[in-house]
Amino acid sequence: MELQALISNIKSEDIVEILGIKDVNVTGITSDSRKVTTGYAFIALKGVQVDGHDFIAKAIELGAKVIIHDEDTDTSNSSVTYIKVKDAADAIGKIASAWYGNPSQKLNLVGVTGTNGKTTTATLLYNVFRKLGYGAGLLSTVCNYVNDDQFPATHTTPDPISLNEFLAKMVEAGCEYAFMEVSSHAIHQKRISGLEFKGGIFSNLTQDHLDYHGTMQDYLKAKKAFFDNLPATAFTLTNVDDKNGLVMLQNTKAKKYTYSLRTLADFKARVIEKHFDGTAIEINGRELEVQFVGVFNVYNLLAVYGASVLLGEDLEKILIVLSTLKSVAGRFETIRSKDGFTAIVDYAHTPDALVNVLGAIHDVLEGGGRVITVVGCGGNRDKTKRPIMAREAVTLSDQVILTSDNPRFEEPQSIVDDMVAGLDPVQMKKALCIVDREQAIKTACTFAKPGDVILIAGKGHEDYQDVKGVKHHFDDKEIVKNILGL
């Protein structure tokens, strides 16, 4: 690709200077100097742990012909074209988009952001549009899809180059729609820069990722930036039952729509009846039975319904498809034992998500059985939520087993100790500490009696446990089934 075409999406005022030959043909783009080969453009990004500017010389040595940077650097090599931009993190998305033929402009791309519900909402939207007969793609925490082809997911929102490569695959495969989770990290790091969205959905905002954002206010600002940057041609759909729902839309140019279970909104739902196999609900005056449990899932389904309507689909067809949908992997997955108790595997790894799932269990149980919760917290992540997670678990459970999640580079026992710090002596009587997660699950199954419910929270769809940088095979659902002889 000619250099001028490669940087065509970057506004002229965002380019500080261009030094060297402008008539250059670029053979590839990367922000990883190890991937550079002859004729590449290397984008020097200042990351959380490493600074790409430190690898410019290495990139040139490997054959880079264009260097894009936003900090002062040695520009003395006459065989290299240097482009200084105001913000390399912003520029890389626009460069990646140009390199792959601006794929987001050829798709109806909808982004879903919020603390909880992103995976379920984005995945169900993808499922709805596939069932309606459309070509569709998905970028999510669990798995990425191009129509029915699966690709493993490494990040909730990939880096800009990988992201545009995926979107280009969707275009090539004939997809008309694309649905993606948009994480706060991705927004803050400008990984979605250069993408053209048809719509944006906000689910909720509760405590998470404070290890990265520092404060709830900065976390909120990161989420809000997604909506601030949506064009007037896009729609926004926000949960007005969340106190930050309308805050998200304060500065957006996009068309504004709302959904709610509690107040007047464009898309309104109410719960009629709850049971372990599903929920009877009403959406905008129409009753239907869905195969999901919990009020939080009604919010997810309502967002899916609203977005589908805003994308121009027939109301009757959407309702029919909603009634056929099943839960997403690792989200309130129910396993019935031969002994008459139920195990539920769920990804809940924030205080709010844990409260929602436990609340859903109590709604269905109606005092008819005990709740035993197995829960841990991830290592090298927001430590402030650990005592809160333990407190919420104990408050809403009859018995809690505090255990290991993905300890990463922390000692599992010290993570459990951080959780225990949130409990007073009375609460501790309901808590048991078993660091070995498999043993914790086995113990919970031993405690359970007919009619009881075991919640195994935190890992959901994950089939590994991350210990000291090594991912060991570990699947909560698989372990439960083995213990129960299923």
UniProtKB/TrEMBL annotation:
Gene Ontology BP, a term: peptidoglycan biosynthetic process
Swiss-Prot/TrEMBL cofactor(s): Mg(2+)
Alphabetized Gene3D superfamilies for the sequence: Mur ligase, C-terminal domain, Mur-like, catalytic domain, MurE/MurF, N-terminal domain
Organism superkingdom: Bacteria
Recorded catalytic activity of this chain's protein: UDP-N-acetyl-alpha-D-muramoyl-L-alanyl-D-glutamate + meso-2,6-diaminopimelate + ATP = UDP-N-acetyl-alpha-D-muramoyl-L-alanyl-gamma-D-glutamyl-meso-2,6-diaminopimelate + ADP + phosphate + H(+)
Cell compartments where the protein resides: Cytoplasm
Start and end residues of each Mur ligase central domain: 112-307
Protein family (similarity comment): Belongs to the MurCDEF family. MurE subfamily.
Full protein name: UDP-N-acetylmuramoyl-L-alanyl-D-glutamate--2,6-diaminopimelate ligase
Species for this entry: Dysgonomonas alginatilytica
Highest classification ranks of the organism: Bacteria, Pseudomonadati, Bacteroidota, Bacteroidia, Bacteroidales
Chain's gene name: murE
